[in-house]
Amino acid sequence: MVSDEIESDHGYHQRSIMISSHRMFIAALTLYATVSYAILHNVHNAVHTVIDEEFHIPQGMAYCNFNISAWNRKITTLPGLYIVSTILLGPLRLCGTYWLRFVSFLAGIINTYLFSILFGVFDQKIGDREKLEGLLSAFNLSILPPLFFFTNLYYTDVVSITFVLLLLILNRANRHVLASVCGLFSVIVRQTNIIWVGMLFVDYILKQVKAEDASSFRIDSVQNVEKRIKNASNRILVDVGSYVSVMSAFVIFLIVNQGIAVGDRSAHTTVVHIPQLFYFSTFCLIFAWPHFLHLIVPFVKYFYKKGPPYTISAMAIVAIIVRANTLVHPYLLADNRHYTFYVWKRFYENMPLFRYAVIPVYLFGLYSLVCSVRSRNDVTFALAYLPCTAFVLVLQKMIEVRYFLTPFLIFRTNIRQRSMKLLLAESLTYLTMNIVAFTIFFTKNIYWNDYPYIQKLIW
Question: I need a labelling partner for 185 at 20 to 30 A (CA). Which of 179, 311, 383, 452 fits?
């Protein structure tokens, strides 16, 4: 009798927690959707097209009207975004600019839900405080300024991230066949997402060959790969095959297409651009600074213990890379509709020593990134994430904030920050930056002689 009552009370408590977390999520999602929709409405009324929408919107309209033979050769990505738009809007004949942008808005709402899953908001095994922290983390990422901005425009980024998040969630749930399917769709939206399919494949393989305790993993265990694969279950072979099939299909695409970019290849050539890692580390410092505060003292102590020769050598190596490998894409200098244009023009170009003065910032950013990834006690994730992030970034010549979004989000979803104060600081940072960014967007007009409509300043 007593035990039955205890179990009944426990079950009632669990249901209460679930109801409470769901109510918090619904309330937060309603607020997010309301504010986001208001911004979408104002953006639509304020501007005809925004930069790359010049290509995406006509292409989306063509697909939405089931004219799949039309193709603009300036578009560099596969038609995933347009296929999604056609499935959602085509049967309803809602093919105007507003509804195409609505696809990104809808993807933003879906992403909020997916972030909540990744942070365990609906996990019955964690307490109320952890759920609240997870919910706040999820909504922080939903309003991450560059990402939130593009939920109001018809770009590939938001839909691309939706499929990458599904890939991550299904991978964590050990639903690897479905994960690989979402990985395939993510690649069809944006080709570079193949890196994250590869990352999770490597992570999966390493998890199969390592010892039970991740911290006890040794490289010599790789020698047992062949033996382990031979003894693997059919499930493991199917899982491996699903990832391999996606990557094999991508290799075939590269061969047939003779490159990764579908169009405008002259402006999207593959290069080696190592400073992209420095820019990405700076991006992480700006948008995840509350989570790096505790690493300032260890960073100083690390270089202090290593001594002046090590510190000077590290700074010298970075300086040499900056000097020899800083590449400037023509678009960066020609397009004054991006914040990066003004940052580069006013600091990196007009102040030649600035790029060397920020070397300590680069080093701290890289140090913080590596330490944060390693702190998860998941060696396989660190071994997969760090090289894949480096690979996807250093082959890009163009300095584009949007290119940093996916690796940053994967990194941030793997931070389990327990301090509500830091999460609130992150929230305040994002809210302030969004207010500033949209104020500039709505109030500052840019005029180009060869464009009949006003241009706007964006990320």
Answer: 383
d(CA 351, CA 410): 33
Backbone angles phi, psi at 428, to 5 degrees: -60, -40
In this structure, are residues 274 and 325 in contact, taking their beta carbons and an 8 Å threshold?
A: yes
302: β partners: none
Cα gap 142→144, rounded to integer Å: 6
User: In the chain, what is the greatest distance between 2 CA atoms, to the nearest angstrom?
Assistant: 83
Give the separation between CA 362 and CA 192, rounded to whole angstroms.
24
Q: Are 144 and 409 a contacting pair, CB within 8 Å? A: yes
Between CA 205 and CA 228 the distance in angstroms is 10
Q: Which pLDDT band holds residue 212 (cuts at 50, 70, 90)?
A: very low
d(Cα 263, Cα 281) in Å, to the nearest integer? 29
- Tell me which residue has tokens 């079950």: 11
Task: Say how many CA atoms lie within 13 Å of 197 toward its Cβ.
Answer: 32
265-300: per-residue pLDDT in tens?
Answer: 888 888 999 999 999 999 999 999 999 999 999 999
Q: What is the mean pLDDT of residues 56-66?
A: 98
- Structure-block tokens of residue 294: 């505790």
- Give one word for 123, left, alpha or beta, with left for phi > 0 and alpha for psi -120 to 50: beta
- Contact between 194 and 247 (Cβ < 8 Å): yes
Burial label, 369 (beta-carbon count in 10 A; 0-12, 13-18, 19+): buried
Residue-level pLDDT at 124: 84
**Are 342 and 336 contacting, i.e. CB atoms less than 8 angstroms apart?**
yes
Residue 165, CA distances (Å) to 155, 183, 184, 214, 369 in order: 17, 9, 13, 24, 20
Which residue reads 């049967």 in tokens? 91
Cα separation, 210 vs 57, in Å, equals: 48
For residue 255, CA distances in Å to 72, 259, 304 come to 21, 7, 49
- Cβ–Cβ < 8 Å for 441, 457: yes
